[in-house]
Amino acid sequence: MTEENKTNNQENMEMVNDAMNAENSDSSENMTGSQGSKAQKSGKKKKLSKTSKRKQPKENNTEAKIVELEENLAELNDKYLRLFSEFDNYRKRTTRERLDLMNTASEGVVTELLPVLDDFDRAFKTIESTSQEGENNVDGFKLIYQKMKGILNKRGLEPMKSIGETFDTDFHEALTNIPAPSNDMKGKVVDEIEKGYMLKGKVIRFAKVVVGQ
């Protein structure tokens, strides 16, 4: 082998070695880069897991506060409805009581005047049964009686009709029982001892009656 050939072979070997070294360096750099990217990815995952763990307690606290506020709202709403219902009932009751008071404000005075009406009725019966002269004089008393009775009627006074009516404890007070004059009068008012009166639909004096049995 000549010297030129030796020289050429050495040059070729050096070139092959340089190429192999270059490939090895590139592969090592690639390995280093891939390892670095993996480390970065794992670091990001750790950071995300930490932030997610921090967010979970905050979310749980917010949900608990929302539930608590909803319960408080429902309780306050129930209290409001109860108070409104109680106030409405109170308003209706006071309105009804005020109307009843206005309707029966004169009840005491009217009740005290009822015996005067009774006296008029008894006087008419007595005068009419005595003489013709008394019957003529009774007209003046009747005018006074009718005037007084008209004033009381305007105030809401109403006399009860008792004779022939079925005995009712809501309107009548039985003084005694007697045999009924007929079968259809059994359990009914046969006679009236004292007239009963109502003031605007309210009984202010029960009729004192005799009941057939």
Note down, in words, how this protein is organized.
The longest helix is centred in the first third of the chain and has 101 residues. 69% of the residues lie in helices and 14% in strands. The chain has a 3-stranded antiparallel sheet with strand order 1-4-5. A 3-stranded mixed sheet has the order 2-6-3, with no helix packed on it. The chain is of the alpha+beta class and 213 residues long. α2 runs antiparallel to α3. It has 2 domains: 56 residues; 109 residues, Nucleotide Exchange Factor Grpe, Chain A, domain 2. It contains 3 helices and 6 strands.
Task: Write a brief structural summary.
Helices cover 69% and strands 14% of the residues. The protein has helices at residues 3-103, 107-130, 132-154, and strands spanning 157-159, 172-178, 189-194, 197-199, 202-205, 207-212. A hairpin with a 2-residue loop joins strand 4 (197-199) and strand 5 (202-205).
Strands, helices and their partners?
Blueprint: H1 3-103, H2 107-130, H3 132-154, E1 157-159, E2 172-178, E3 189-194, E4 197-199, E5 202-205, E6 207-212
Distance N to C terminus:
168 Å
Looking at this structure, what is the CATH superfamily of the largest domain? Head domain of nucleotide exchange factor GrpE
Quickly give the CATH architecture of the largest domain: Roll
E-strand count: 6
Binned strand content: 5-15%
- Main sheet makeup: 3 strands, antiparallel
And the CATH topology of the largest domain?
Nucleotide Exchange Factor Grpe, Chain A, domain 2
Instruction: Estimate nothing, just give the exact number of structural domains.
Output: 2
Q: Which percent bin holds the helix content? A: 55-70%
| Parts with pLDDT < 50 across at least 5 consecutive residues | 27-36
CATH level 1 name of the largest domain: Mainly Beta
Structural class comes to alpha+beta
The rough form would be described as: rod-shaped
Radius of gyration: 58 Å
The arrangement of helices and strands along the chain is HHHEEEEEE
